[in-house]
Amino acid sequence: MSYCPVMKNGTEVIEYGEDGKIIIHEELCTGCGICVHKCPFGAITIINLPEELEEDLIHQYGENGFRLFKLPTPRKGQVIGILGQNGIGKTSSISILSGNLVPNLGRINEKPEWDWIIERYSGTELGEYLKKVADGKIRAALKPQYVDKLPKAYSGKVGNLLKNVEERDMEGVVHRLKMEATLEKNIDEISGGELQKVAISATMVKDADIYFFDEPSSYLDISQRLEIARVIRELAEEKIVVVVEHDLAILDFLSDLVHLMYGKAGAYGVIANSRPVRNAINVYLSGYMPEENIRFRDREIKFHPHPPKDMKESFVLIRYGELFKRLSSFELRTSAGDIHQGEVIGVVGPNATGKTTFVKMLAGVLQPDDGWISAEAKVSYKPQYIKPDFDGTVRELFLSALGEGTEDNFFKIEVAHPLRLKDLYEKEVTALSGGELQRVAIALCLGRDADIYLLDEPSAYLDAEERMNASKVIKRVMDKSGKSAMVVDHDVYLIDMVSDRIMVFGGEPGVKGYAEGPFHMRDGMNRFLKNVGITFRRDNETRRPRINKPDSRLDREQRNRGEYYYAD
C-alpha cells in the first residue's frame, strides 16, 4: 500500500477486507508489479491474461484467488488423460466433473448455480454431461492422489474396507491386482504400493458412471503400473474414465486422448482441447502449443542418447562383495559390484525385492549378515517415505539440517534455484503438499556433505516436469561435484535421463530378492524389461521412451533380436 503508484494518486486500489487480509481491486490495478517485488513474503502474483480467456472462466476461488479456465470433456469408451504441473487446477476440474464442486463462473459474490454452466455449454458434448451431473444422474468414483493418508481415514483390515464399499466384482479386481495376501493385513501396516492398490481397488469396486484416477502409479513398480493401466483400459470400455498421471510412459500406454494444462501454480490454470496421446506428450515436452500459439515453458524437455561412460580411469568410491541380508521372512542376495566417482546408478525392479534394503546397507543404516562393503565414503540418504515431522518453516529446516551449507553458492545455484525452494522457504513443513515435501527432501539430501547420495523414489508426487527437472539436478550435481548417486525409481523416463549404469533387482516380492549389476544402461535395461515382458522404442520426434504395444510388429522384431531396450 505504501509503494503502489495508484494508491499514491488517491485511488483505493488496495484495502483491508473484512477478515483483515489485503484485497487488490483488479479493475483498478495497472499491473506495474511494484507490489510483487516489495511484498517480503512472495504472496502477490500479477498475471496479465488475454481478455478472450475470461470468457472461458469456469471457477474462481474468491477475490484475487485461483482461477480455472475450461474443462476436460469426458467420453465413454476412451481413457481421457490430464497432464500438467502441480497446483494449476487438475483436482478442481475433477471436483467439478464429479459434482463435488459447483462452478461459479467467476461470480464470487453469488451462490453458484449449475444452470449457469449448463447454459454456457448448451448444445455441446460437455454440456450434456454437466446437465446429467446437475440432475444427479451421474455417479462418480474417485481414487485420491495422496494414498499415504488412507490410514488416517480408515482403520482395520483391508478386506473389510473393500467389502464395505463393494458394489461390483471385488474378487476379480483383487485377483488382477494380486492383492490376496493384502486382504488380511491392517491398513496401517501396509506399504505405499499396497496402499495405492487398495485405493484403486476401492474405487473400481464401486458402481459408478465415471471413474477418476488421480496419480494411480505412485509407489507401484513398472509391472504393477502396466497391469493397473490394462485394468483401467478395460474399465473404460463400458464406463467413463479420466486419469491424472505424471509417469509419461504409463500415460502414453494408458490414454487415448489427453488434455494438456498450463498456467501458474496457485494462480491460474487453463485446460487445452484434447489431443491424441502421442501428440499431447510431444507438445508437452516441447513447451509450445502450436494450434493455440501458446508457449507455456521457456525450454524444451529433451532426451539425449548417452553412450556408456568409460569407467576404467575413474576412481572407485565403493566396492562391495556378494551381500546377504535376512529381515524376518525376507532375504536378499546381491552380486558383487562397485560405484565409481561421478556416476549415477539407476536401480530398477519389482517392489519388495530388496532395493531399499540394499540402499540402507550401503548407507550403513543396516548391516549385511554376510559379505563386505569396502568404503570410507560419507553417505546422504533420502528415504522412500517422507514424514513432515519438523516443527517450523522450510527455511528453519534447512538451517537446522545444513547450517551454513544453505548459503553455499553451489547449493543455491545447482540445487535450491532449479528445485524452486525460494517459493517454499516461508511455508510450514507440516503444511507442504506431497510434491513440495519431495522437492525439499531431494534438496536436503543433495545439500549434505557426502561422497554418495542415495535417493529412494524421488519421483513420488512430483509432476512430470518436476521429475525431469529433478533428474537434471541430480545428474548435474554429480557431474560438477565429482560425487556419486544411486537412484531407486519406477519412472522409466527419470531413470533414462539420470542413469549412467543400472542395477537390476528381481525375485519373489516379500520373500526373496536378488540384485545384479551395475550394468551399462543397454545391458541392464534389456535384462530388466525382459523380466517385465515389454519392449521400448524411442519416439522419432522427441527421442523419448515409448512402450511398444504387445505383439505389434516392433514388439515382435525387438523380442526376436533380444533388444527389449531401444538401441540408440
Number of strands: 25
- How much of the sequence lies in strands comes to 15-25%
DSSP helical segment count = 20
Decide which structural class fits the backbone. Answer: alpha/beta
Compute the separation of the termini in Å: 58 Å
Global shape:
globular
CATH architecture of the largest domain: 3-Layer(aba) Sandwich
Mean pLDDT reading: 90
Low-pLDDT runs of 5+ residues are none
CATH topology of the largest domain: Rossmann fold
What is the count of structural domains?
A: 4
CATH H-level homologous superfamily name of the largest domain: P-loop containing nucleotide triphosphate hydrolases
Q: Specify Rg, calculated over alpha carbons.
A: 25 Å
CATH C-level category of the largest domain:
Alpha Beta
- The percentage helix is 25-40%
Largest sheet, strands/sense/barrel: 8 strands, mixed
Task: Tell me what the structure shows.
- The chain is α/β, with parallel strands linked by helices and 568 residues long.
- The chain has 4 domains: 34 residues, no CATH class; 239 residues, Rossmann fold (3-Layer(aba) Sandwich), CATH 3.40.50; 204 residues, 3-Layer(aba) Sandwich (Rossmann fold); 35 residues, no CATH class.
- It is 32% helix and 20% strand.
- The protein has 20 helices and 25 strands.
- Strands 3-4-10-9-5-8-7-6 form an 8-stranded mixed beta sheet, with helices on both faces.
- A hairpin with a 4-residue loop joins strand 11 and strand 12.
- Helix 4 packs antiparallel against helix 5, helix 10 runs parallel beside helix 11 and helix 17 runs parallel beside helix 18.
- It is globular, with a radius of gyration of 25 Å.
- The model has no long low-confidence stretch (mean pLDDT 90).
